[in-house]
Every structure is written in C-alpha cells, then in structure tokens.
C-alpha cells in the first residue's frame, strides 16, 4: 500500500513539474527579442507576411533586415491577404471601439464604447506602434500566442515592435499571403516568444496609463 502511494505521489510530482515547465513566466516572455538592421535606403524596404508560418519578413532587396514571429487573425476573423501599403504610423495609438471604463470612484471596467456605462469616461485599449495597412487593420504590439488569435490585425512582441516601427515608413509596401518563399529559408526554425495564453493580463489601472507604451527594451540595431 505504501509503495502504491509513493508511486502515485511520484507521478503527481512529475506531472506538476511538467506543468510548471510548460507555463512561461512574464520574465521569460519579456526577455524575448529579435535582431534587426536598419536599411541603407528606406525606399527599398518591403514587408512580406506569411499567415501560415505566422512570420513577417522585412526585406531590403535580398537582405533580411528583420525576421519576426507574429500573431495573425483567426479563421473567423482572418488577416486580409493582398498587396497593401503602410499609410499610417502611431506610436501611442489606442483603440476607438473597445477599452476601459473609468468610474469616478477610481474603479475600472472593460468593454466596448457602445456599452459605456453612464457617468464613466472611456480609454481605448492600447495598441502601441500601430502601423495601418488597411482601414482598421494594422501591425501593433500585443500578446503573442502560438496560434492565430487576433481579430485580423498583426500582433508583434513588445521588444520587436519598436524595431519594426523604426525600419518601416509610411509608403512601405506590404504583401500578405498564406505563405512566402522565405518560409523555407530564413523563416525556418525562428524561435517564437513563449505562448502568452497562460499569463495574466495587466491590471486595468495600468492599462489606462502611458506606462504600457514603454515596457519594451530599448531597440538596438546591428
């Protein structure tokens, strides 16, 4: 009987350790980064997005300036495919339709602007380093997951987003398709950030401040 108990205890401990190892910490998520280079001629930069590989390639000619994992739209809310152009850049953008309700007593709620309770003010969801390529669709900082998870926008890790923002300019062409030729070469075996799904979201009183825009590492270029 004691032997059976010890065996069961051992199995439970192994399962617990395995579970702990699979759950990333915020520190591990925050440590993620990708190397990047600035272009010789910004006019020659183009962005290629592979939705199946969830990867973006920032190219200058045949040179990759930045290869970054991304999160794209789900099957029901897909990232649009086609050829586009970056036409708007906003480092401190907030969403206009969803966000946070601010009550007079210092409490906060979360939801859509159309459902805003009477007597509250509204602060949109932060979307740092916004770069719009189609109306209501853009690249921006957001939680990265290991599967398509957005409403169609393209999410970037917060340490990589300012590098992308610095390299890409208004007028940069963007090609989005299910796959790209680079998937089989420079897009292979690129490490992704830990899946953010198990991580708790930040407190609402933090999300309504501008601190959320500055949690990234200072961008360094090769």
TrEMBL record:
One Gene Ontology cellular component annotation held by this UniProt entry: extracellular region
Organism for this UniProt entry: Rubritalea profundi
The keyword Translocase is assigned to this record: no
Signal peptide: 1-23
Keywords, ordered alphabetically: Cell shape, Cell wall biogenesis/degradation, Peptidoglycan synthesis, Signal, Transferase
Protein known as: L,D-transpeptidase
Stretches assigned to the L,D-TPase catalytic domain: 45-177
Entry-linked Pfam families: YkuD (PF03734)
UniProt pathway annotation: Cell wall biogenesis; peptidoglycan biosynthesis
GO molecular function: peptidoglycan L,D-transpeptidase activity; transferase activity
Superkingdom of this protein's organism: Bacteria
